[in-house]
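Appendix B.2, paired examples.
Example (i):
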Amino acid sequence: MTTRTTVPPWSMAVTAMLSVQLGAALSLPLIAVTGAAGTAWLRFTAAAVVFLLFARPPLRSIRRADVPLLLGLGVATGMLTIASLAAIERIPLGTVAAIGFLGPLTVAAVRSHSARALIWPALALVGVVLLTEPWQGEINVIGVLLAGASAVAWATYILLTQKVGTRFTGVSALSLTFPIAAVTAAFT
């Protein structure tokens, strides 16, 4: 008899959130040297090399209809990271994370097909404003706009990941889209 241990989905979500925020925090010194796009390029290039070596992208299984989705997901991934890192240069990391999370929250609310669910992103936005207290000093409009752009890119990332995930399993989609994200960062 074999015992199968399953990992609770919430633990994967928490691990992903910790990974993203820790990666952003550790990137701060590098952002000062290479800028947001340079830092994103370094991160994506390193990840792309690892994926290319160990995941072996399934190039032969790519169909013509997959190309726009893969390109879109790679660009969305790149823009999500670049916008977040550029926002972190201007406003606190916690504020960037809070604004950025409005993207996935809005996707979840819209996908619930309940008009009442749209209250949650609105309340979250009010919470962001109350926590950051923009009336207590200057507002870095560019930083807020960049964090908003990361929210839009994150929402796009979620929607495209679902579509790409129906075609590719495991990390094969990442092995295809991280090089695209690296190229996006290189030309930003």
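Example (ii):
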Amino acid sequence: LRGVARRVGVSHAAPAHHFADTKALLSALAAEGFRRFLATQRARQAIAPPDPHAQLLAAGQGYVAFAAAHPALFRLMFASRRPDYADAELAAAAGAAYDHLGAGVAAAHGGGAAPPVDVLAAWAMAHGIADLANSGRLSLVAPDASGETMVAAALERALGKPCDPGRRLD
């Protein structure tokens, strides 16, 4: 906490007034990350066509865009064991993001409850593409493709909408 205080230019005791320890600070940061993550997805959906497939694709593109814009925060949210996911604020923010995904998958499949395997498939594709893009590995598969285009194409396939094999992924 002292290091954080030094970097933001406040007294070394200031963070202790808000956070009990580093785990609490990282939990709050991850919770804020999930709120911004969801806002990024919703912003993409706001400019997408209203049909459920287009909305799910836009959410996936927002997922990748968030990861690219905030790689350290993305890693904290999804790869770190340091935040406390039992923290009510973090659990609520992460749960809202997951519920948004589930609702999008359900809508894309015609409503009702989304089969967990379909939610997992959509999540794994968007997350995997975001992680590959952040690590510089996406270019091994598609040198000219952006992560956004790749996630849209992959989700189209997962939703049973095959991509045009001649379509450029850029």
